[in-house]
Fold this sequence. Notes:
This protein has helices at residues 3-33, 344-372, and strands at residues 35-42, 52-57, 63-67, 72-76, 82-85, 95-100, 106-110, 115-119, 125-128, 136-142, 148-153, 159-164, 170-174, 186-188, 194-198, 203-207, 213-216, 229-231, 237-241, 244-248, 254-257, 270-272, 278-282, 286-290, 296-299, 309-314, 320-324, 329-337. It is of the alpha+beta class and 374 residues long.
Amino acid sequence: MTNESQRRQRDTPVKRQIFIGCTLASLWFVYNCAFAQIITEFSAGITAGANPAGISPGADGNVWFTEFGGNRIGRIAPNGSVTEFSSGITAGANPNGISAGPDGNVWFTEAFGSRVGRITPLGVVTEFSAGVTKSVVFGITAGPDGNLWFTNFVQFALAEVGRITPTGVVTEFDVGGLAPGMIPSITAGPDGNLWFTDFNNDRIGRITPVGVVTWFGAGITPGAGLGPITAGPDGNLWFGGRGRVGHITTGGVVTEFTAGIPAGATIPGITAGPDGNLWFTLSNDRIGRITPQGAVTEFAAGITPGASLNSITAGPDGNLWFTEFNGDRIGRIVLAPISSPVTVPTTRALTLLLLSVSILALAAAATFKTRDTE
């Protein structure tokens, strides 16, 4: 074997590693730059002291939110215009959770009113109190059975899960929890059941449409302070806690993720995004994104300090929307493709860089093939 042949044999693996590195760099670039996170805050039309809390897409193409401090329900259009509704809501009710219903209306909970409310797309409110026995009504979601499901509890007592039909008939279920119980969030799962969190007792519960409850605690860190829960794009349920995001399979297996999340931060809201990831709010005025594999990225640009982010949801317009409890604002996250006209200067630069990396990779591949056959 000649010296030249030996040299080519030594160089070929190195060249191939360089080529693979260029290719992986290109793929990484595409993944991270295919979408630009553009955050816009909206305050016009929101009364001072409103304290926006829950948020949900509506069947009418708008996003609806509760005003915990303002005792109102708000509606924000995709262009950011806000309408507030207060007529029909009892004083001191403190609307909190909110969800689109199967009947085309939006349903909400009254945290200190012991009621569930319904608001039509035109703003007509109806309150339901018959059958609601606990003083704090908190989370709410549309169920797989055509009803709405909500959580309610009394301080230092047991918590319950309730079901309300579109006509307002309430049934409550004893979930067999531990005192003091506090169930802040509930969501429909991919398995046809409802899933909910227990803030005080570090557990996740599952309830069937007929009221059979199962609890899961294994794998959840003591003192996790579980809050929001949502169905993920991977068939699991995702939840937030103190300094962590986790998921639980429909079989009850829990995995927690802490890397990239500040240890002392709480997570008030979480939702599945249109990009196949989970998005969540953080108490340090940041938005977090976590992939189904657990990789976390945080975003702060465009968020006013001291906003106190709360709930987050995917809107009917393909964007993400969130509430700012202390800021009296609604935020929008546009996951704009790099071809979007709103980022033309950046788009051109990113496109040229991506093209350059791709050309280099292809040129390297062609060079290696030519040299290896010499």
